[in-house]
């Protein structure tokens, strides 16, 4: 299990769409865990609106087309199918990691959110994982 924290993100939603788009371009299947049904609805709209290169096929876990859809969004971890990548769009530690090859956390510059991310980092370490950090501001500076 590979766990990656993308931090110092200026726009969390835009970063999510970019990373989901990259994963889709590689032919990977994705699950996105949200905090609530309302958060899932917001992300549903976001994936319709933000992509610059077209629609990102996605649906909820209960949708009849979920098995054929590359991106599944839901707030109920038990409903998310096994996928290549899980994006944790919550402030809690993601469970069921054995169903995924990779976990991605996106952390913006808000100090409260950064503190919560540090707690998740430590929790993943306590589970025996070795998270990796990628500084998005540094990446932007260095191209």
Please explain how this structure is put together.
The chain is of the alpha/beta class and 143 residues long. It has a single domain (2-142), classed as 3-Layer(aba) Sandwich (Rossmann fold), CATH 3.40.50. It is 35% helix and 28% strand. It contains four helices and seven strands, in the order βαβαββββαβα. The protein has helices spanning 12-25, 37-49, 111-126, 136-142; strands at residues 2-9, 30-34, 58-60, 71-74, 83-89, 100-108, 132-135. The chain has a seven-stranded parallel beta sheet with strand order 3-4-2-5-6-1-7, with helices on both faces. The longest helix has 16 residues, at 111-126. The protein is globular and about 40 Å long. One of its GO terms (biological process) is DNA replication. This is DNA polymerase III, chi subunit. Pfam families: DNA_pol3_chi. GO terms for molecular function: DNA binding; DNA-directed DNA polymerase activity. It comes from Formivibrio citricus.
Short structural description:
The chain has 143 residues and is α/β, with parallel strands linked by helices. Helix content is 35%, strand content 28%.
Topology record:
Layout: E1 2-9, H1 12-25, E2 30-34, H2 37-49, E3 58-60, E4 71-74, E5 83-89, E6 100-108, H3 111-126, E7 132-135, H4 136-142
Parallel strand pairs: 1-6, 1-7, 2-4, 2-5, 3-4, 5-6
Q: Largest sheet at a glance?
A: 7 strands, parallel
CATH class: Alpha Beta
Percentage of β-strand residues: 25-35%
User: How many domains comprise the coordinates?
Assistant: 1
CATH architect. name: 3-Layer(aba) Sandwich
| Assigned CATH superfamily | DNA polymerase III subunit chi
The stretches of 5 or more residues where confidence is low (pLDDT under 50) are none
Mean pLDDT: 92
- Which value, in Å, is the CA radius of gyration? 14 Å
GO molecular function: DNA binding; DNA-directed DNA polymerase activity
Protein name: DNA polymerase III, chi subunit
InterPro entries: DNA_pol3_chi, PolIII_chi_sf
GO biological process, one term: DNA replication
């Amino acid at each position: 299990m590979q766990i990656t924290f993308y931090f110092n993100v200026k726009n969390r939603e835009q970063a999510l769409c970019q990373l989901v788009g990259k994963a889709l371009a590689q032919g990977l299947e994705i699950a996105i865990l949200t905090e609530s049904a309302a958060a899932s609805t917001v992300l549903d709209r976001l994936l319709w609106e933000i992509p610059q290169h077209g629609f990102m096929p996605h649906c909820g876990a209960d949708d009849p087309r979920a098995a054929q859809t590359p991106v599944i969004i839901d707030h109920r971890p038990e409903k998310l199918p096994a996928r290549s990548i899980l994006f944790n769009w919550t402030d809690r530690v993601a469970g069921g990691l054995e169903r995924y090859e990779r976990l991605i956390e996106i952390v913006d510059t808000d100090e409260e959110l950064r503190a919560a991310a540090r707690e998740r980092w430590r929790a993943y370490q306590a589970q025996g994982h070795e998270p990796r950090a990628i500084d998005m501001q540094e990446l932007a500076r260095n191209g």
